[in-house]
Amino acid sequence: MWIKYIFDRVVSLVGLLLIWPLLLVLVLMIRRSMPGAPAIFKQQRVGKDGRLFTMYKFRTMVPHHGGSSVSVAGENRITPLGEKLRRYKLDELPELWNILIGDMSFVGPRPDVPGYADCLEGEDREILNLRPGITGPASLKYRNEEELLAKVEDPIAYNDEVIYPDKVRLNRYYYHHYSFVMDLRMIFATVLGKKILYNNEWI
What is residue 10's predicted lDDT score, i.e. its pLDDT? Predict the structure, then answer.
């Protein structure tokens, strides 16, 4: 996977150098919409080999909301600006720094909070051998996850019993069938908002 490693470092560095004006504008917009709150949201996530790391995102929720780690579209804790950032995945841009320093990759499982990763058992723990990513097969299939959860009676139960196990299945397949060409296809599908055929299903 040395090609993946080099690709991640080079592209993340070039990306940060190119988009820093956009990052600055977003920081100012967030600070204006939430005075006194840090524009960057930091949270401990589980990375490769189960190691904890600090993941960086743009803040999209009011601080100290005390809510669940499962987000649902339309929640009051998500600010109007935050909703737009989440819709267009702009809140993920600071994760380019995580990629540059080696905590994450462009493609891989989304990094879980410790509570979810601790529940992985047996062969499901194989996905911890992967560096977490900004996008991946599970992220593509559930790109509208918050809207989907908003339609069910118990979002947390539906996430825990249906969505999360399916994400683990997709990420385990990715672990056993890695392809750099497929990584590129998933990156372009993420940027363009397109679906691709992966393991005989459209994601």
Answer: 98
> Which residues fall within 8 angstroms of residue 63, CB to CB, at 6 or more apart?
34, 37, 38
Straight-line distance from the first to the last Cα atom of the chain, in angstroms, rounded to the nearest whole number? 23
Which residues make Cβ contacts (< 8 Å) with residue 99, sequence separation at least 6?
8, 9, 12, 105, 106, 134
Task: Indicate the residue type of 126.
Answer: E
Residue 127 zone, left/alpha/beta (φ > 0; ψ -120 to 50; rest): alpha
Question: 107 pairs with which residues across the strands?
Answer: 135
Structure confidence by residue, pLDDT tens digits, 34-69: 988 899 999 999 999 999 999 999 999 988 665 566
Query: Domain map of the chain by residue range?
Result: 2-202
Task: Give dist(CA 102, CA 55) in Å, integer.
Answer: 11
Question: Is this prediction's pTM over 0.85?
Answer: yes
Give the number of other Cβ atoms within 10 Å of residue 64's Cβ: 8
Residue 10: Cβ within 10 Å count: 11
